[in-house]
Amino acid sequence: MARFMDVHDGFVGATREQIIEAHDADLAIEGDEGVHFEKAWLDAEAGKVFCLSTAPSKEAVMRIHERSGHPTAEVYEIGVEV
Amino acid sequence: MARFMDVHDGFVGATREQIIEAHDADLAIEGDEGVHFEKAWLDAEAGKVFCLSTAPSKEAVMRIHERSGHPTAEVYEIGVEV
């Protein structure tokens, strides 16, 4: 298992409820790929969302996000955390 | 106080020691601006670093990072965290 940070664009004006809903949609199916999304952070002005996860691969993170309706190609494998 | 996520490029091939050193350089002066850097995550292949902080403003985060020698213009104010 490795650690990943992924980045989404296009969430301009998103609300807390919408982020909870999107995060819950990930959590509902993440087990299918052995992924766990730990945290999500939204900047609604910039429309950016950052998600921190543990997963077996970058592709697993991407597949869950795609199935949940918020695909992203920006997934970074975290080698160092301080 | 608000929460911020900032993003750095150009850390391709950076080591754990270099990230600890960069993070310590921030911690050494962050109090001057009322900033606190909580976490930093590195993807050395992509050269990306993500920093999570609490701070009075985006500009305060930018000033500390600039003085520490790793400026970035990409600082996002986090309105929602789940």
Which features does this protein show?
homodimer; 82 residues; alpha+beta
Describe how the helices and strands are arranged.
Two copies of one chain form a homodimer.
Chain A: E1 2-8, H1 16-29, E2 36-43, E3 48-55, H2 58-67, E4 75-78, E5 80-81
Antiparallel strand pairs in A: 1-3, 1-4, 2-3
What does this protein look like?
Two copies of one chain form a homodimer. The model of chain A has no long low-confidence stretch (mean pLDDT 98). In chain A, strand 2 and strand 3 form a beta hairpin. The first copy, chain A, has helices spanning 16-29, 58-67; strands at 2-8, 36-43, 48-55, 75-78, 80-81. Chain A is an alpha+beta fold. Helix content of chain A is 29%, strand content 35%. Chain A has a four-stranded antiparallel β-sheet. The first copy, chain A, is built from two helices and five strands; from the N terminus they run βαββαββ. The longest helix of chain A has 14 residues, at 16-29. The interface between A and B is medium-sized, with 27 and 27 residues. Strand 2 (36-43) of chain A pairs antiparallel with strand 5 (80-81) of chain B.
